[in-house]
Amino acid sequence: MPVPAHIRFIINPTSGTRSRVNVAERIEQLLDKDKYKHEIVFTEYAGHAPKLAKEAADAGYDVVVAVGGDGTVNEVARGLLHSETALGILPKGSGNGLARHLKIPMSLDAAIKTLNTGHVATIDTGSINNHAFFTAAGIGFDAYISSVFAGNKKRGLQTYVELVMKEVMSYKHMPVKATINKKTFETDCYVMAFANAAQYGNNAYIAPLADIEDGLLDVCLVRKLDLVKALNLSYCMLTKQLASPDSAEYFKTTHVKVSTQSPIMYHADGEFLGEESEFEVQMNPLSLKVVVPAGVN
Ligand SMILES: Nc1ncnc2c1ncn2[C@@H]1O[C@H](COP(=O)(O)OP(=O)(O)OP(=O)(O)O)[C@@H](O)[C@H]1O
């Protein structure tokens, strides 16, 4: 009989708005006990998950599963970077960008079964000012939204969409100097997104051509926004198309530098990180193992 793999589930009890399903109970019921010897731990505070994940990676666990939204996935994955331990995801947030990109089912039961039947793939990760991200990071409007969202008591997709609609036309672009693919240029910047996965979450595709195993970042630059561009961009994001060139420009690269006169907000995987005037964004090719469904590379 093969030896069961060690798997640790890290549950963020605060994530998600909807279900009161007892995740631990479903794991007990559905996880393949021949394949896995498992344990379940709960985060006790924001920032606890990287420690719980790293501790398991150092102890040689085969898989550590993030049970939560993109914030929890980011924290767990940070603790596993460059290790042999694979990340699993049971999506419980409102966006679930990385899980969707990897075709991990949104239903809890199906996602647990994916752990039973899936396989391990290796993906790229990115970093912005040395803070790792797995789905996308960005400066400008999307970071501003993450800052407002962070201070909002109400969570979930509806709150997010209401917030974007309220703020989208009043947010002002800023002048920045950017270096991409060794070319330095000055530009207005409403938002500059650095995508590892194709979507932010909720099937909103900021970088439809992104490939998570190609060693490249997909940069999407929106210089200025007016109503027509906002409509074009929203339509294209929701239909997985590139926006028209006067709405957004796209670049594939491994490294981006940005500097600004006045500090600008930034985020990683939707978590607001503050304001800076200098940014260095990098790819770390094939630096994270993940459990993906059978049939997904
Ligand atoms: N036990 C805890 N108590 C308070 N905060 C926690 C705890 N565990 C994790 N967190 C924090 O919760 C934050 C939000 O987590 P996460 O993104 O997974 O859920 P969510 O906000 O419901 O999902 P989404 O971002 O998709 O809406 C993370 O930044 C994380 O640091």
In short:
The protein has 297 residues and is an alpha+beta fold. It is built from 8 helices and 14 strands.
Can you tell me about this structure?
The chain has 297 residues and is α+β, with helices and mostly antiparallel strands. The protein has two domains: 5-117, 3-Layer(aba) Sandwich (Rossmann fold), CATH 3.40.50.10330; 131-282, Tumour Suppressor Smad4 (Sandwich), CATH 2.60.200.40. The protein has eight helices and 14 strands. The strands form two sheets. Strands 5, 6, 7, 8, 9, 10, 11, 12, 13 and 14 form a ten-stranded antiparallel sheet that branches. The mean pLDDT is 94. Adenosine-5'-triphosphate binds at residues 12-16, 43-48, 68-72, 75, 93-95, 155, 270-271. The site of adenosine-5'-triphosphate has 23 residues, from helix 3.
Keywords:
297 residues; alpha+beta; Rossmann fold; Tumour Suppressor Smad4; 2 domains; ten-stranded antiparallel β-sheet; four-stranded parallel β-sheet; 26% helix; 37% strand; binds adenosine-5'-triphosphate
Q: Residue ranges: pLDDT <50 for 5 or more in a row?
A: none
* Overall form: globular
Please identify the top-level CATH class of the largest domain.
Mainly Beta
Structural class: alpha+beta
Strand content: 35-45%
Number of helices: 8
Order of helices and strands: EHEHEHEHHEEEHHEEEEHEEE
Would you identify the CATH architecture of the largest domain? Sandwich
- Which ions and ligands are bound to the chains? adenosine-5'-triphosphate
How many discrete domains? 2
Task: Classify the helix fraction into a percent range.
Answer: 25-40%
In round numbers, the mean pLDDT is 94
CATH topology of the largest domain: Tumour Suppressor Smad4
Largest sheet at a glance? 10 strands, antiparallel
- What value does the Rg take, in angstroms? 19 Å
Question: Can you count the beta strands?
Answer: 14
Span between N and C termini? 27 Å
